[in-house]
Design goal:
This protein has 84 residues and is of the alpha+beta class. It is built from three helices and two strands, in the order E-E-H-H-H. The protein has one domain: Arc Repressor Mutant, CATH 1.10.1220. The model has no long low-confidence stretch (mean pLDDT 88).
């Protein structure tokens, strides 16, 4: 991951039948979202729809970023627990 290549991308997603939305995220967040979706056997669209359903007052973009952070924190804590 190159930190110097920071640029945002806007992608359009259909997150439920008939509902299209646009999400603007840094490229690194899109890559992380794709990684999480792949690990869970979901499409990015389905993962974003799931995040959107559970976003509890966050904006969609904030909810996606928080989800990514929580996913990797949980994964790291599992690694640390097995190493202890």
């Amino acid at each position: 991951m190159q930190l110097g290549s920071r640029r945002a991308e806007i992608r359009s997603l259909v997150i439920s039948p008939g509902y299209r939305t646009s999400v603007r995220l840094d490229v690194h967040f899109w890559e992380a979202l794709q990684d999480i979706a792949k690990r869970r056997g979901l499409s990015v669209r389905d993962l974003v729809a799931e995040i959107d359903r559970d976003r509890d007052g966050y904006s969609r973009t904030e909810a996606i970023r928080v989800h990514i952070l929580q996913f990797y924190r949980t994964a790291l804590s599992k690694v640390e627990t097995t190493e202890a």
